[in-house]
Amino acid sequence: MTAAELLDSLVFDRDGLIPAIAQQHDSGEVLMLAWMNRAAIDETLSTGRVCYWSRSRKSLWRKGETSGQVQRLVEFRVDCDNDCLLLLVDQKGVACHTGRRNCFFTAIRDGKAETIAEVVVDPAKLYGA
Amino acid sequence: MTAAELLDSLVFDRDGLIPAIAQQHDSGEVLMLAWMNRAAIDETLSTGRVCYWSRSRKSLWRKGETSGQVQRLVEFRVDCDNDCLLLLVDQKGVACHTGRRNCFFTAIRDGKAETIAEVVVDPAKLYGA
């Protein structure tokens, strides 16, 4: 199958979106989950820089455009139902807008919600507050 | 914050669902993405065995109930927006209904869609065909 045929077989939800998991290609760290539409997928594959769809801003979201924390695409994978993407990426700096390396920094441990990762970059520096 | 307060702050979509990424706790392999409602979350946390919501069957989906390929919960994590879950699990056997270890076995390489993982368990054996 060609890549184009695979992309044409993707299953988007009623908003035209598909969830995309970003995973650091070498460490295996799960960085974030975001959403893509077909235009975001096409741009990501053609540029090699990950572009999502921002559901809040309702526009293409070129990850790192403001913060500099870009994701270079290493490999684009599709799941068995064609309704979820796994992006192996090389994350520059931090993936999370809180300045943490990844977005999954709250864990349930012993009945409590614990913060398990430190802020490594001041968000004010990322977004020029 | 208590675990209960964290769970009450989760953001579900208009169908009452939240996406959940399952990751093998020790290897870091991303196994699958599925969906949970509040009942599936509560059952997963109380039993330590992962239970999703099946969107196709519209019922609780106790992963491995038919196939035996259960997921034991190792840690339950929530992302910065409270709208995605990361489940660290210990996957018995294979996660994918195709008999592959994980669901993300199709990759775009050199303009082609390539199958990059082998079937390790015959699906007929998993589902008693």
- Tell me the number of strands of chain A: 8
Structural class of the secondary elements of chain A?
Answer: alpha+beta
Query: Largest chain interface and its two residue counts?
Result: A-B, 39 and 39 residues
Distance between the termini of chain A: 47 Å
Question: Are there runs of chain A of 5+ residues with pLDDT below 50, and where?
Answer: none
Order of helix and strand elements from N to C terminus of chain A: HEEHEEEEEEH
Mean pLDDT of chain A, to the nearest integer, reads 96
Main sheet record of chain A: 4 strands, mixed
Rg over alpha carbons of chain A: 15 Å
Helix content class of chain A: 10-25%
Strand order, main sheet of chain A: write it out.
Answer: 2-1-6-5
Q: Assembly state here?
A: homodimer
Shape of chain A: globular
Number of helices of chain A: 3
Account of the 3D structure:
2 copies of one chain form a homodimer. By secondary structure, the first copy, chain A, is α+β, with helices and mostly antiparallel strands. Chain A contains 3 helices and 8 strands. In chain A, the strands form 3 sheets. Chain A has a 4-stranded mixed beta sheet, covered by helices on one side. A two-stranded antiparallel sheet of chain A has the order 3-4. In chain A, a hairpin with a 4-residue loop joins strand 3 and strand 4 (59-62). The longest helix of chain A has 10 residues, at 38-47. Chain A binds chain B through residues 1-3, 5-6, 19, 21, 23, 27-30, 32-33, 45, 75-81, 84, 86, 96-98, 100, 103-109, 111-113, 116, and chain B through 1-3, 5-6, 19, 21, 23, 27-30, 32-33, 45, 75-81, 84, 86, 96-98, 100, 103-109, 111-113, 116.
